[in-house]
Amino acid sequence: MSLNNNKEAAQTREQRKKERKEKREKEATLSDRRKKVRIRLLPIWLRVIIVAVLIVASTALGAVVGYSVMGDGTAKEVFNKSTWMHIVDLINKEK
User: Where is the composition biased (Basic and acidic residues) (predicted)?
Assistant: First the structure.
């Protein structure tokens, strides 16, 4: 009787393994069918260009605000070469 129960238990164990394996395979095929294809609204190269432009614009805006609002200059003077040469001379000035 014990030997018979062991055989039945082994068969049911193998059946459960087989059922689980079939279920995993079925789920795998369903997930392959359901896989979404992502369509990007903006390509990566365009994103890089946009970020670069935003960095340049924010730097220019920060210089304008810093020079005209916090400093004593006008907004147009920020883009003069003489202004930046004066700033570089102040930084490199030997003490």
Answer: 10-32
In eight-state DSSP terms, residue 67 is I
* Amino acid residing at 12: T
What's 94's DSSP letter? -
Rounded-to-integer distance, Cα 53 and Cα 60, Å: 11
Helix (H) or strand (E) holding 31: helix 2-34
Domain limits, the chain: 1-35, 42-95
Query: What is the per-residue pLDDT across 8-51, written as a single tens digit (0 to 9) for each?
Result: 666 788 888 888 888 887 777 665 666 667 788 889 999 999 99
